[in-house]
Amino acid sequence: MSDLFVELTAPNGQKYTQPRGLFINNEFVKSKSGETITSINPSDESEIASVYAAGPEDVDLAVAAARKAFKSPEWRDIDTNARAELLYKFAQLIDENKELLATIETWDNGKPYSVSLADDLPDIVNTIKYYAGYANKIHGQVIDTSPLKLAYVVREPLGVCGQIIPWNYPLSMAGWKLGPALCTGNTVVLKAAEQTPLSILYLGNLVKEAGFPPGVINFINGEGRKAGAALASHPDVDKIAFTGSTATGKEVMKMAALNMKNITLETGGKSPLVVFDDADLDQAVKWSHLGIMYNQGQVCSATSRVLVQEGIYDKFVAAFKDQVSTGSVVGDPFKDDTYQGPQVSKAQFERVLSYIESGKSEGATLVAGGEPHKNAGGKGFFISPTIFTNVTDSMKIYREEVFGPFVVISSFKTEEEAVRRANDTTYGLGAAVFTENITKAHRVARDIEAGMVWINSSNDCDSRIPFGGVKQSGIGRELGEAGLEAYTNRKAIHVNLGNRL
Ligand code: ADP
Predict the structure, then answer these.
(1) Is 150 among the domain residues?
(2) What positions does the domain Aldehyde dehydrogenase occupy (predicted)?
(3) Are residues 313 and 436 both part of a single domain?
(4) How far is the CA of 361 from the centre of ligand 1 (A)?
(5) What is the pLDDT of residue 329?
């Protein structure tokens, strides 16, 4: 066994061979500097594996491989039915390996295995299949002007796409980015988040097995400030698609400006969830719990600001607290009944704790949680699900994204106040509205400044429906037909038919 692979046994007993290299040109390779990053199991802080970390030289190699592949007849001129087949085959291989990939995801990220298997894996499989279906349906247009002219529009790929993904949904985010980029004929250098590279590197095996030509899909691991920055500022990269924090998104945007790259950004949020007096209370409680506690609260569109109309405020808070104490079982992510695993890293764990301190010192009322949750071994980055009430709009915990199992609940009097306060944020990713009044529901959905509004639910997401934000939550859309816009140019071709007149 070379240095590029390591035999591992996961906590659930699953044995497998983990690639440790960067995946460039359909091969796993060492980083030029020999630098590595060690992946940590967030459940017990043990080391899982050290994997090679890309520096600028490795990014150069990956981009060159992607450029060569982009121009190769094997990929550029492939029949679009065959391109679709490659994507279907890739999705099928991911599906066939779903238990293993879910194991790796849970080990590296900390999310419950039941969630990895039931949600994350179907999400990447469905998204890649969905875009496989588009590969032979990227249609141009003929535009009639006069008999003297023929004008038509072809949709062409952008070229080499740099894709930077976060650690909260490694496989899902890879699917959202690879599907639309590949079905439209681009080539890709995708950088995994340094906290969670293992499942992405494993996908390299499946890329090769599916039969993609070398260089079409490259996976690198590496630190944001090194590998990510090298990719975002690379002069031979045509597009950057980024998912992560708003602060980093702004950095990426600046770097992309160097050669005016096309960009798609999906960044942070502090999404409101508004519960009116006339809501179905059980439904509102069920969804608002999921909306903030799912995935350890590490969801960019988490509905982390709950606004409840004063008539049902006390009832709602009591029911929400009950739901947390019975529904948010915290513990070993490989156990069947676990709802909430550890936060992904020590840095995130400490970040959430610092917001807990901030909430206390600013005078909000701590209703539940507010401390690390000690699991059996006393190790790991577990946080007790935390609820603050009596929160005012100027408090840090009301305004800033916490990215943890941490919710703030506040009360309002009128619809006008609810809308105004829901919109009083620099973000605009998601928003939820609970009411049984159909007119009010649609009215408020229109009035809220957000890329997505859920009526009587929270965080519904589907590969067929556009996902993205307004304001400082992002630029552009992923998923659905809208996702194709992010990966194609429309080239206008003017044919002069009139010279003979
Ligand atoms: P977090 O702070 O939660 O880790 P980030 O937004 O910083 O979230 O990270 C999301 C992704 O962006 C990761 O893949 C990370 O490596 C990458 N990243 C971080 N900093 C930079 C940067 N300066 N340039 C490019 N990519 C970066």
Answers:
(1) yes
(2) 28-493
(3) yes
(4) 29
(5) 95
Closest ligand 1 atom number to CA of residue 248: 6
Whether residues 177 and 227 fall in one domain: yes
Residue-wise pLDDT for 98-143, tens only, equals 999 999 999 999 999 999 999 999 999 999 999 999 999 999 999 9
Element (DSSP H or E) covering residue 445: helix 438-447
pLDDT at res. 232? 98
CA of 166 to the centre of ligand 1 (A): 7
Confidence bin at 1 (pLDDT 50/70/90): low
- pLDDT mean over 247-259: 98
Residue 376 has pLDDT above 70, yes or no: no
Domain count, the chain: 2
Can you tell me whether residue 485 is helix, strand or coil? helix
Residue 310: closest CA among 437, 408, 414, 436:
414
Q: Are residues 384 and 453 in the same domain?
A: yes
| pTM recorded for the entire structure | 0.98
**CATH assignment of the domain containing 78:** 3.40.605.10
Structure tokens at 194: 């340094």
| Average pLDDT taken over every residue of the chain | 97
**Domain assignment present for 46:** no
What is the token pair recorded at 207? Answer: 């890329």
Are both 183 and 147 inside the same structural domain?
A: yes
Domain extent at residue 481? 56-267+477-489
Query: Which of 37, 59, 164 most suits a substitution to test ligand 1, by most atoms within 8 Å of the C-beta?
Result: 164
Q: What is the model's pLDDT at position 2?
A: 79
CATH number of domain containing 431: 3.40.309.10
Mean pLDDT of the region 58-79: 98
Pocket of ligand 1 (CB under 6 A): 164-166, 191, 193-194, 224-225, 228-229, 232, 244-245, 248, 251-252
Closest ligand 1 atom, residue 244 Cα = 6
| Residues above pLDDT 90, as percent of the chain | 98
Q: Identity (one letter) of the amino acid at 412?
A: F
pLDDT digit string, tens, across residues 398-413: 999 999 999 999 999 9
* 3-state SS string for 23-91: EECCEEECCCCCCEEEEECCCCCCEEEEEECCCHHHHHHHHHHHHHHHHCHHHHCCCHHHHHHHHHHHH
199 and 260 in a single domain? The answer is: yes
Residues 285 and 209 in one domain: no
- Respond yes or no: is residue 266 known to be catalytic: yes
| The token pair that represents 398 in the structure block | 């009301």
**Residue-level pLDDT at 374:** 81
- 315 CA from centroid of ligand 1 (Å): 40
Q: Does one domain contain both 435 and 351?
A: yes
**CA distances to 73, 272, 277, 461 from 191, in Å:** 26, 31, 46, 23
Residue 499 has pLDDT above 90, yes or no: no
Residues 303 and 412 in one domain: yes
